[in-house]
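Title: Prediction job returns without error message
Component: structure pipeline
Severity: low
Priority: P3
Assignee: unassigned

Description:
Job completed but the reporter wants confirmation the result is attached to the right record. Sequence as submitted:
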Amino acid sequence: MKKLLFFLALMLLAAADAGASFKVGNLYYATISETAVCVVYEDGSTNTATHYSNLSGMVTIPPSINYNGKTYQVEAIGNYTFYKSPNITGFNLPNTIKTIGTAAFSRLPRLFEFTMPNSVTRIGESCFSYCTSLINLNLSTSLTEIPQTAFRSCESLQMLAIPEGVTLIGTDAFRGCTNLRSVWIYGETLVQINYRAFEGCMSLSSINFPKSVERVGGFIMDGTPWWDSKANGLVYVGSAAYKYKGEMPDGTDISIQSGTKGIGSECFKDCSGLKSVNIPNSVTVIGQSSFEGCTGLKSVSIPNSVTSFWGYRSFKGCTGLTTVTLPNGLTSITSEAFRGCASLKSINIPNSVETIGSYAFEGCASLTSLPISNSVKTIESQAYANCTGLTSVVIPNSVKTLYGGIFSGCTALKSLTIPSSINSLYYTFSEFVKGCTSLKTLEIDNEKLANIGFFSDVKEIIETLKLGNSIYTIPENAFNGCTALKKVTLPNDFITVGKSAFSGCTKLEHVYSLRPRPIPIDATVFTGVQYDKCQLHVPSGCKEHYQEMDVWKEFRNIAGDAGSSGGSGSGVRGDVDGNSQVDVADVHALINIILGKE
């Protein structure tokens, strides 16, 4: 919620920049509410132009202004307001300022000092970046986040105090502050430090990381004396395992110290010598690419204390990994989490997981069964692509959303079952089974997917097709040109079959229609089917109905032996549709009879 409010605040500043502005004194303003204004850059200039080239020295921003007889409180500095102003050396800001926008004070070559009033609660990205002369900086005690690139390349900054209340330091926030010698972080509120936050601070030797720090990105301290002074081995930042320093010997066993709360991004990346790792129950988060490229790692057990993988590629490229035990509270398998783990044979997906991310198991060639659970709602693109060991896949009924290319390149896949639960399809879904050269059996129990267009890459491979009872409409040309198709099962409650639905299915040998009474169909539905060689199977006692109906009667051999799966007929009382059970489908069948559709 806090991030959403911050985003909305910056959007408001951007809107103020784009709207009509007016000048009072030496500054331009734009209204952001009925009672408040935002300081903006000179009317008519662009974001990348030099702003306020006429101002020099110390600039004082008033707490309020009067315009057209109305008084407004000055509450914000807009995006790019003083960008590249060449002659400004400092600012006096009133305690009415609450928000400072993106790059508001960026690239001011003569800005030597800046005191941020404690009224400021939010600052935008790059707000002071490349202020190369900035020596003294005092941050607001009301800040909760220091956003990405906020003070990047402030080369003259020497000392820094981060106030209590700040919970996050963003990516590149102080990167390239080459003269920054010491940083003091007050309190125990800082939780997260993102990628390269202090990278390249080549004078930084003193910094205290509070125990509250749990999440750390990669390279946050690379290129600093602080990092250079650390002994080889696993280095910690606050309560996070930050990074392994030095070359890891082959066959290394690592035990992460008790009390550690997070494993940092790229902590063990490319440590090919890592054989095993003991993760304590105190760890709650595993960072991006934390074990990527650990080719010697054979197995890993992640404790139930871990609730999330922070970022992508946590175990990508661990080619020697054979077994993984995941924690019960995990809610998602993030993108590329196990991509390229070619030896992975066993992995449990707990029932807490709702999302399988894109490329999560791509290239896991040793998997012979689908790593999924009955809680999964979303499967993202290419999630199981190139899993060449998969032979049979049943997607559970919990899945609601599918993206494209999920099983592309699964060359050994022979059968695939699609449930009725799916209601959303995204992106290049037609590549769903691209390159599945062995796919012979396709079971579809979903109205949205009752069309070979979604499986076009196996159009000439599929031999057996079963349409489930949730399908009421078979579209025009739905399975037109499926030249390898030998067996089709039609659901017990379909209402319409479109023109040429099975046209060109020249090898069709068996059609199972589970409807007790046929519906009228167009003469083109089975164009090219050899009626004298293809057998039509219908429910017991319904043979005569089909023999009397146009098109259906063209089949020379009609057998009354169809059941719910093409087996024997039903003798169950009340079983109108002949599927051997009394259910809601029988109600639909009765309604259709009453309405004269049968």
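Comment from assignee: result matches the submitted record. The longest helix spans residues 2-18.
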